[in-house]
């Protein structure tokens, strides 16, 4: 059995009021760092899509406080540890910043993710690390965006940086910066994003120093293990309240982008005993040739996120959450690939794994069961030969889906499933910065899973390129095997995509492919909605009518799926016919 747990640190007792104040101050601190990151970054994927996060880590690398995507929890620890493996504490100096994006030696989820680690010095000693994590729109590799469909090993995915020093008190180390800029297609954008990362971590370090001056360094150091212990206790208390036992769940993924006739099995077995829980991935598919593999920092955090979802989403995300959890995750599985397997399209498969974990955990806490969001989540990367200024440009955009229904309400619409903290990039920004026109962006009728509570809506987005470009589609590998409903609810419509619709060159898009496109070419993607929950015939008839009037549900589906008859002339409910339909 492999475990990501660490022995509890020795703690000095702090009075509850002081500890609560310090927790609030640290939360404010990392939120400030994140705000600075998003508001000083250059790329749209950072400043608009907010594909980044910030954290404060203890001297041993354990995450104490974070702000942004919880998906990055394990990335912080493994990356700080990779820095410590190369640079002992006594070799670090105040003002140093280190950089890494290696998914194997460090903790990033794929090569486009870059992490900056800044030691925090107080009275000449390192009290912790200020960390920032941000996705880059391009770091070289086979195609613009670095996440190419043709990747067959990690070296195809762009420049790989082990933990190296990037910044000192005198500023950036120019040789390292030049290597990075020389290996990407949009060097000015990448440099701007990196400086934003360094800047926010330096601000975080200064604010921790100020906090130490206010409360004393020993008090702040004592707060770190105490904060993690609180999260651990809340998680253990929740787990302990569940019945002991085992549960299994699985789902299928279309393919890895290479072996197109070979679906992939994603399976998890959960064993709960007392306040401990084990996630077993041994029955999951072996690692694949294509770039859909998941490093453990991705496959393990998917389980942690599912566990917190099923218990209490208000539990603070830090490394205290890892202590009650063990993993059985043999090397060579798609959830733990051997180097140098490619991993750039991890995100869609990680979302499937998260929802399989949710399904397995629902046995222990059915009151919090949740249907999966649209499983086709993914992204596009459009590398334009030149933008309006004559320079190369890379449009890296995340695609939202519909969330799954919950026991209390319908699923939300238009969010990035599994991550939930990344907003849509506004159409006005896209069309201003890139040679592209968004021809339509709309909800797709009947795209949500049906139920007492329906899933969130799927959406349709159509683009027309106004310049020549190389486009990579990473659409979640869920065209055939879509989401599902729970407790009597239905699954959503599948993901669909076409290129050059309505012309003699029209064809269906594949889940993962890179396409050379010319000015005037178009493509449309229909992202799936979320799964439904409960018997759709028990949904309030007036709620179904609202859905029809809003364009969410068709008249045909209202009658067929929900048993609600609506007069197409008056658009009012035929109460007698509805009653008869629901009695049938």
Written account of the structure:
- The chain has twelve helices and 22 strands.
- The chain is an alpha+beta fold and 584 residues long.
- It has three domains: 16-235, Beta-Lactamase, CATH 3.30.450; 370-539, no CATH class; 540-584, no CATH class.
- The strands form five sheets. Strands 2-1-5-4-3-6-7 form a seven-stranded antiparallel β-sheet, with helices on both faces. The chain has a five-stranded antiparallel β-sheet with strand order 16-17-22-19-20, with helices on one face. A four-stranded mixed β-sheet has the order 8-9-10-11.
- A hairpin with a 2-residue loop joins strand 6 (164-168) and strand 7.
- Helix 1 (16-40) runs antiparallel to helix 5 (187-215), helix 3 (73-86) packs antiparallel against helix 7 and helix 4 crosses helix 5 (187-215).
- The termini are far apart.
Descriptive keywords:
disordered N terminus; Beta-Lactamase; alpha+beta; 12 helices; five-stranded antiparallel sheet; 3 domains; 22% strand; 584 residues
Radius of gyration: 24 Å
The strand line-up of the biggest sheet is: 2-1-5-4-3-6-7
How many beta-strand runs? Answer: 22
Total separate domains? 3
Quickly count the helices: 12
Report the biggest beta sheet as strand number plus sense, adding barrel if it closes.
Answer: 7 strands, antiparallel
CATH architecture of the largest domain: 2-Layer Sandwich
Average pLDDT confidence is 94
CATH topology (level 3) name of the largest domain: Beta-Lactamase
As residue ranges, the low-confidence spans are: 1-11
